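Q: Given only this backbone (588 positions), what sequence would you predict?
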């Protein structure tokens, strides 16, 4: 079927939409691929739907190739299974909860572990039925706190979610590896630059987990890579290597000193260098122990204040902190909270009052670098005073450790002894993880093993976002002229532009379109009679089909221009070779 610009349901825009922050969003709207329906909700126009479907088909082919079977659940789901696993509550504000006319509780599925677990329980009962991998491609619903960048982060979005079911851990490893391999094939075919990184498993629980990130400066995820070994991880999952405990026999006793007007790390360090200079080197921020208060909002609504102790040269990274605590959310410790905890002296908070057993009763978690024997300058819990030579393990004992400090370029690699970490940004495209028995336990999915004994099934879950992929590919491939699709996902193979008023030109273009169509080439044909060549060229560049064929003035000399949208290279091809040429280009 030839798509004709004269009748295609598309309206390209010269102006950027006001709400678009990133290039892919701007271009997908301007080129007529998507339209905003409401915040975080988008309508797929014909061109956009073509790209989305091609991505889905690539995913479908590769899932089928590893023996996974496609099915489809409702998006509207009953509360009970999600109640049984705790996620009805744990999902917090992100879950769309709805009521039916009888007052019954339902939800719009944010992900379907529960339903897949139950359908297997419903139908299977023996180890002979396993392993099994099943999947669906379906709209998911999450009331995202910050829907963003068009279809990159929607409140309704498309997800391919698959689930594996195995009798034992060895089986789960095999299923996981198969999915991982399939994901590599999918992302190679989708044609963008990606990295595979270690991940935390978030609200889904479970153990081994990796993410596929598209490299992109607009990405919301930060990941690190080692300069020497193959270590790569989402910063949320980076586990700082704790130094070994240090001896503190020769450490002087802790002593409180007057440090008036030093509520910040900078003012404190200046004051230390002026009034308490060290013999060996100047004081720096990393010598201080900064205590940051936050409030953990638990899924059941309770607010728990927590203090985080970390070296003064590092900030708390909220995403890293939340990554450790999910589904708990992190909120600011505000003025009212300070009022409720009079033991806390703003700007001078120290371990003296922190900890469950101490005056404030506030749980005190420290950075893994705060190991036994390390010596710190920290708040004395008195206005204008700090304690020096405070030794961890001798003078204070935290309630535990937490990975909340920012990760920086140049930090030592947690995996090898030589390398350092480099940070970069990416967009999460896929996430695979070993769930283990969490859902099978909660929903009682057991099968009989070969000895007739009931055993709990172990599961994996594997997600990709095709709608997000449309934006991520656009983000990674566009240029200043517009979209520029990789061939496998382009809405058409070739964009034929007929220019001028000459009937011959339109007749020739029409013939080429038909011949290509007959050979199975997908054609977008700009047959609009009264539109100027300039507008047609601009539209072709904006829409981003990989090959553009211009039938125009050259026809008088018997040539037609074939242009590569991506490289910009153009060539005049003899008119009667054009069809062959295009077929060859498309089929490489
Ligand atoms: P994120 O951290 O970006 O919110 P997530 O970790 O919550 O994503 P998963 O639950 O792992 O996402 O979902 C699997 C896949 O679904 C993701 O890798 C991503 O491609 C896609 N996805 C998740 N949330 C959205 C969304 N709001 N809009 C579009 N795609 C999404
Ligand atoms: Mg994820």
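A: Predicted residues:
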């Amino acid at each position: 079927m030839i798509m004709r610009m004269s009748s295609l349901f598309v309206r390209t825009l010269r102006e950027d939409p006001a709400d678009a922050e990133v290039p892919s969003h701007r271009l997908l709207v301007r080129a007529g691929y998507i339209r905003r329906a409401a915040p975080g909700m988008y309508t797929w126009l014909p061109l956009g739907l073509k790209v989305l479907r091609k991505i889905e088909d690539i995913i479908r082919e590769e899932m089928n190739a590893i023996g996974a079977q496609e099915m489809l659940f409702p998006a509207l789901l009953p509360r009970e299974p999600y109640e049984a696993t705790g996620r009805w509550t744990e999902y917090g504000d992100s879950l769309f909860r709805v009521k039916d006319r009888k007052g019954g509780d339902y939800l719009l599925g944010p992900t379907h572990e529960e339903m897949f677990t139950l359908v297997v329980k419903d139908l299977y009962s023996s180890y002979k039925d396993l392993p099994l991998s099943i999947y669906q491609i379906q709209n998911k619903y999450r009331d995202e706190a910050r829907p963003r960048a068009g279809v990159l982060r929607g409140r309704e979005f498309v997800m391919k979610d698959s689930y594996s079911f195995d009798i034992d851990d060895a089986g789960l490893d095999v299923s996981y590896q198969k999915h991982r391999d399939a994901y590599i094939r999918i992302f190679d075919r989708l044609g963008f630059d990606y990295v595979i990184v270690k991940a935390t498993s978030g609200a889904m629980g479970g153990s081994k987990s990796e993410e596929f990130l598209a490299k992109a400066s607009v990405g919301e995820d930060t990941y690190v890579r080692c300069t020497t070994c193959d270590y790569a991880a989402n910063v949320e999952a980076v586990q700082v290597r704790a130094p070994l405990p240090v001896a503190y026999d020769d450490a002087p006793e802790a002593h409180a000193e007057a440090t008036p007007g030093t509520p910040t790390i900078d003012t404190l360090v200046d004051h230390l260098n002026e009034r308490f200079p060290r013999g060996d080197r100047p004081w720096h921020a990393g010598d201080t122990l900064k205590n940051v208060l936050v409030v953990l909002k638990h899924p059941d609504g309770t607010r728990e204040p927590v203090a985080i102790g970390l070296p003064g040269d590092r900030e708390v990274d909220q995403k890293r902190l939340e990554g450790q605590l999910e589904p708990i959310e992190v909120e600011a410790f505000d003025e009212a909270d300070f009022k409720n905890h009079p033991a806390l002296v703003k700007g001078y908070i120290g371990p003296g009052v922190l900890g469950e057993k101490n005056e404030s009763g506030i749980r005190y978690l420290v950075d893994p670098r705060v190991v036994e024997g390390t010596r710190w300058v920290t708040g004395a819990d008195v206005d204008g005073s700090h304690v020096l030579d405070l030794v961890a393990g001798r003078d204070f004992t935290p309630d535990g450790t937490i990975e909340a400090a920012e990760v920086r370029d140049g930090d030592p690699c947690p995996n090898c002894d030589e390398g350092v970490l480099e940070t970069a940004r990416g967009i999460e495209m896929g996430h695979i993880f070993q769930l283990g028995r969490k859902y099978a336990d909660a929903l009682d999915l057991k099968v009989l093993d070969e000895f007739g004994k009931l055993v709990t099934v172990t599961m994996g879950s594997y997600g990709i976002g095709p709608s997000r992929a449309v934006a991520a590919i656009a983000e990674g491939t566009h240029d200043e002229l517009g979209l520029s699709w990789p061939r496998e996902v382009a809405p058409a193979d070739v964009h034929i532009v007929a220019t001028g008023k000459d009937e011959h030109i339109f007749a020739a273009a029409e013939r080429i379109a038909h011949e290509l169509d007959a050979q199975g080439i997908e054609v977008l044909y700009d047959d609009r009679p009264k539109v100027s060549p300039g507008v047609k060229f601009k539209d072709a560049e904006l829409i981003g089909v990989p090959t553009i064929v211009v039938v125009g003035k050259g026809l008088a000399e018997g040539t037609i221009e074939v242009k590569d949208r991506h490289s910009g290279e153009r060539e005049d091809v003899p008119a009667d070779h054009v069809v062959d040429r295009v077929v060859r280009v498309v089929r490489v």
